[in-house]
Specification:
This protein is an alpha/beta fold and 607 residues long. It has 3 domains: 3-239, 4-Layer Sandwich (Glutamine Phosphoribosylpyrophosphate, subunit 1, domain 1), CATH 3.60.20.10; 245-447, Rossmann fold; 450-600, 3-Layer(aba) Sandwich (Rossmann fold). The chain is built from 18 helices and 27 strands. It has an 8-stranded antiparallel β-sheet, covered by helices on one side. Strands 5-6-7-8-12-13-14 form a 7-stranded antiparallel β-sheet, covered by helices on one side. α7 (259-267) runs parallel beside α13 (403-421), α7 packs antiparallel against α14 and α9 packs antiparallel against α16. It is globular. The termini are close together. The model has no long low-confidence stretch (mean pLDDT 94). The chain binds fructose -6-phosphate. Residues 72-92 are annotated as: Disordered. Its EC number is 2.6.1.16. Residues 285-425, 457-597 form the SIS domain.
């Protein structure tokens, strides 16, 4: 949520900052701004409401300066306005700050500053930092930043410029990611690798509680008591082309199409057909430890939570141990009981979702064992966990997650195999699942080939103001995720129910104006699903079934999207794919901004 970039070196900073901000726009896109240190100890600050392209258009033709910071915002304190956009500056204009995260004690600090005669010009929490740094009276910029940061509580990633010290940027991190990119006599700072890959492959991730001074020729990292820390660089594993649209109209379309290959990446080298098991060395769990768990608890937010529910069912079915998923955003607030024989799994694409990161902290604080199912390598959650399985989905840019979720579901299948094969899952059953996992990429290609047909169904769905998505047991989290994707980008009300719950209340809403998308796999519940669809039809409600070829619909004449069958435990993976296309084409029909839906951002690093 929100993006930070910084540059110091021999080139003109503005174009580099703007390009970086464009790359980060998916993290927040309601306003943007840059500060560039100019000649004669001045700072040139430009801020606009809206997208980075508005900022580019608003900049003066000649904006020179070789040091600068930039920000793209997702509003938390105060609406999207020019005054609230970052960078924020001190009264004398000397200090400029960009910030991701939330300062919890901002109101108190704002009041103190106002009492001291400071004229606050925004409604943001961030502005206090600029004033605190400027007023610190410390001898060095580093000391002033440390002093200011010591007065705030909350989460932050910040980058600071001081026109009196144009040879450096000072940055700090607590709870929001911040990365230094190392170039040839130039250095970059960003909240996300996406802004760095075009410039360098050498990066250093700051840890929570760490500060850094970044010069054109190097950097120094240190802690709040000014002790130096050792921060070696690592090599980025993303190619610049991975971040381009590659001819697709939207990142979401590209990422949906990439799913077969992204599944191939997550399973590469991890499936052992002979022993019917998955090899997940990164979990850091011995077979004995795996066997010692008597329960699994999965934690994630939003769609990651829904996929967690898919995973919990897989684990119960294949490993026969109780498993459930819970919204990480609620978990830590109910003082959860952490049990030594429970395996906790944190699931997150970004690895930066603060609610999930806090849930991990809560588990660790209470001595629990938590592993991650995370996409972004080196992210906060990945580093905080005791071990994990990287998703290898590649960069995901569209706010509406697709390929990462599919890889999460496959990741859960791998974990379920590992837990199952140290228990009662037979070698033959393990091999059955492995063969089915290997077949998934081609089966997804078949579903994707039916995109034109799904697009036609989407046009019909887009014409309704409200939709139900229904499913049972394995199909219910599929329905939840289908409704989530639909509402997120088409802005249509879409609500998921267990099919079995319809008659306990929601059926009252069914009429000609409220269509239902029903998830109807060819499993032991197919007959009951058919009966529910009949009840909907009898009340005039339209139904679109996402189903398998061999489900016998008898007299029931409803439109169907047919997906290939896999092993029943893996059905949710394939049943979800058409719902992504349904949402995408509904949003396309309605003409919405598919990759950047209103009010949302890709990586939710605030509570
Ligand atoms: C929906 C979506 C969100 C995320 C959620 C968690 O399409 O993308 O619901 O799933 O914000 O994000 P991560 O997986 O990054 O923790």
């Amino acid at each position: 949520m929100c993006g930070i970039v910084g540059y110091i070196g021999g080139q003109n900073a503005a174009p580099i900052l703007l390009e970086g901000l464009t790359r980060l726009e998916y993290r927040g896109y309601d306003s943007a701004g840059i500060a560039v240190l100019g000649p004669k100890d001045t700072t040139q600050v430009h801020r606009v409401v809206g997208r980075v392209r508005n900022l580019t258009a608003a900049l003066p033709k000649r904006l020179t300066g070789k040091v600068g910071i930039g920000h793209t915002r997702w509003a938390t304190h105060g609406p999207a306005s020019e005054d609230n956009a970052h960078p924020h500056t001190s009264e004398d204009g000397r200090i400029s700050v960009v910030h991701n995260g939330i300062i919890d004690n901002a109101d108190a600090l704002r009041a103190q500053l106002a009492d001291a005669g400071v004229k606050l010009t925004s409604e943001t929490d961030t502005e206090v930092l600029a004033h605190l740094i400027a007023r610190s009276g410390a001898d060095t910029l580093e000391d002033a930043v440390v002093e200011a940061v010591s007065r705030i509580t909350g989460t932050y990633a910040i980058a600071v410029t001081d026109s009196a010290h144009p040879d450096r940027l000072v940055i700090a991190r607590n709870g929001s990611p911040l990365i230094i990119g190392v170039g040839e006599r130039e250095m970059f700072v960003a909240s996300d690798l996406a802004a760095l890959v075009r410039h360098t492959s050498q990066v250093a991730h700051l840890d929570d509680g760490e500060f850094a001074t970044v010069f054109a020729t190097g950097y120094r990292t240190f802690t709040v008591d000014e002790s130096d820390t050792t921060k070696p660089t690592t090599e980025i594993d993303i190619a610049a082309e991975d971040l381009d649209l590659g001819g697709f109209p939207h990142y979401m379309a590209k990422e949906i199409q990439e799913q077969p290959e992204s599944i191939e990446r997550i399973i590469r080298g991890r499936l052992d057909h002979r022993f019917g098991v998955a090899r997940l060395d990164g979990l850091n769990l011995t077979p004995r430890e795996l066997r010692g768990f008597s329960r699994v608890k999965i934690l994630g937010c939003g769609s990651a939570y829904y996929v967690g529910q898919i995973g919990a069912t897989m684990i119960e079915e294949l490993a026969r141990i109780p498993a459930d998923a819970e919204a990480a955003s609620e978990f830590r607030y109910r003082n959860p009981i952490i049990e030594a024989d429970t395996l906790y799994i944190a699931v997150s694409q970004s690895g930066e979702t603060i609610d999930t990161a806090f849930a991990v902290e809560e588990i660790k604080r209470k001595g629990g064992r938590v592993v991650g199912l995370v996409n972004v390598v080196g992210s906060t959650i990945a580093r905080a966990c005791d071990g994990g399985v990287y998703l290898h989905a590649g960069p995901e840019i569209a706010v509406a997650s697709t390929k990462a979720l599919t890889n999460m579901a496959v990741g859960f299948a791998l974990i379920a195999l590992s837990l199952g094969r140290v228990r009662d899952l037979s070698n033959a059953d393990g091999q059955r699942i492995i063969a089915a996992i290997r077949a998934l990429p081609d089966q997804i290609r078949t579903i994707l080939a039916a995109e034109g047909e799904i697009a036609e169904h989407a046009k019909v769905a887009a014409s309704a103001n409200s939709l139900f998505f229904i499913g049972r047991v394995r199909g219910f989290p599929v329905a939840r995720e289908g409704a989530q994707k639909f509402k997120e980008i088409s802005y249509r009300h879409a609500e998921a129910y267990q099919t079995s719950e319809l008659k306990h209340g929601p059926l009252a809403l069914i009429d000609e104006s409220l269509p239902t998308v029903a998830i109807v796999p060819a499993d032991e519940l197919a007959d009951r699903n058919l009966a529910a669809m009949q009840q909907i039809r009898a009340r005039g409600g339209a139904v679109l079934a996402v189903t398998h070829e061999d489900v016998d619909f008898g007299e029931l004449d409803v439109p169907r999207i047919v997906v290939p069958r896999t092993e029943p435990e893996l059905d949710p993976i394939l049943l979800t794919i058409p719902l992504q296309l349904l949402a995408y084409h509904a949003a396309l029909t309605l003409g919405y901004d598919i990759d950047k839906p209103r009010n949302l951002a890709k990586s939710v690093t605030v509570e």
